[in-house]
Amino acid sequence: MSSKSERNDRKAGKKGPLSGGRKSPSGKGFSAPRGAPDGVRPPSARGGERANPSSGDSSQRSQTAGQGVPRGRAIPDAADFVWGRHPVLAALANPARRGKGRLLATPERAAELEDGDLMHGHRIELTDMQTLNRMLPPGAVHQGLVFKVAALEGVSLDELADPAHGVLVMLDQLTDPQNVGAIFRSALAFGARGIIVQDRHAPTLSGALAKAAVGATERLPHARVTNLSRALERLAELGWRAVGLDGSGEQTLEQALDGSPTVLVMGSEGDGIRRLVAEHCDALARIPMPGGFESLNVSNAAAVALYEAARKQAG
After folding, report:
1. pLDDT by residue (tens digit) across 88-110?
2. How far apart are the C-alpha atoms of 238 and 234, rounded to whole Å?
3. What is the rounded distance in angstroms from the CA atom of residue 1 to the CA atom of residue 292?
4. CB 54 within 8 A of CB 43
5. Which of 264, 80, 231 is nearest to 156 (CA)?
6. Within the chain, which residue ranges are assigned CATH 3.40.1280.10?
7. Distance between CA 87 and CA 146 in Å, rounded?
8. Rounded-to-integer distance, Cα 54 and Cα 135, Å
9. pLDDT per residue over 236-260, tens digit each?
């Protein structure tokens, strides 16, 4: 899980500050054998899932976070997993997940799912905390609940953006899963339409990212595009106005937002919004910081921008 802090209030191009079948505890029988099948609008899922070579075999890794993996032992692939109570419950409730994936839970969590009718047609494989620990990356806080399932694929840009109304968020080369997950969470909370990412420079919407999003990746659609500049051109054709966050922007965010359908463009740590992407924005705006501190983490900046954009949209 990365601890890298991505920031978004920096001028483009400049360096600087700125997540064997057994019976249920109640005896009602909802377990699945170990060979259980793999398994907007909710986001869609990719077909099929990769096998996890380190799950339940002799290649178990060290259980201590931060101590690395002993030679010859495989690191579990976080892209295959969603873990933690809220992310897993959201994934189970996503209709695109119906009949897909392998759901593992401790007896206590299994009883909770059964009593609350939260399985949505999925079957539970009972296991213990130690087995779940071995399946996941070091330090993963799974709370006794793990869903092994294919990563979400997303929707097309036109499906996400047509007709134009509300707010979209575009992420320019943000790669830290904690930050991207937090932005998904804020975008859902403030009523954004969805998230746009560049296919080659975006993390998979699972693992630590899904944990940080607390289920938002299952409820908020996203589009993966090949080129952000061309995506902004298409969005302009559909009636969207792009506002890029830049600490050197001449306008404040409040001044730049006008209540029209808006794409908030957030840049990565180090470079901010890239030059060509910035040139396709209708305005570059800064978040005023009267406290004298130079920067905000990009996920915090996104939350501020989303709040301000939602306020403008409401009139």
Report:
1. 999 999 999 988 999 999 999 99
2. 6
3. 31
4. no
5. 231
6. 157-313
7. 9
8. 7
9. 999 999 999 998 899 999 999 999 9
φ and ψ of 55, to 5 deg: -85, 115
Domain with CATH 3.30.1330 in the chain: 78-148
Residue 60, pLDDT above cutoff 60: no
> Is 289 in contact with 296 (CB distance < 8 Å)?
yes
Q: 47 with 112: CB under 8 angstroms? A: no
* 72 dihedral zone (left: phi>0; alpha: psi -120 to 50; beta): left
Res. 28: pLDDT tops 70: no
Give 157-313's CATH code, choosing from 3.40.1280.10, 3.30.830.10, 3.40.50.1100, 3.40.50.150.
Answer: 3.40.1280.10
**Distance of alpha carbon 308 from alpha carbon 258, whole angstroms:** 10
Nearest to 76 by CA among 9, 26, 1: 1
Quick one: 166 exposed, middle or buried, by C-beta within 10 A (0-12, 13-18, 19+)? Answer: middle
267: pLDDT strictly greater than 60: yes
Least confident span in 50-64, 166-180, 189-203, 280-294 = 50-64
Outline where 139-297 has alpha helix (H).
157-161, 177-189, 207-213, 216-219, 228-238, 253-256, 275-279
In Å, how far from its chain's centre is CA 270?
Answer: 21
Contact 20, 311 (CB under 8 A): no
The pair of three-digit structure tokens given for residue 303, joined into one six-digit string: 């939350």
**Total count of residues recorded for the chain:** 315
Q: Are 118 and 89 contacting, i.e. CB atoms less than 8 angstroms apart?
A: yes
Domain 78-148 has CATH 3.30.1330: yes
Q: What is the pTM of this model?
A: 0.76
Using alpha carbons, select from 77, 78, 81 the residue that is nearest to residue 150: 81
Contact (Cβ atoms closer than 8 angstroms) between residue 82 and residue 136: no
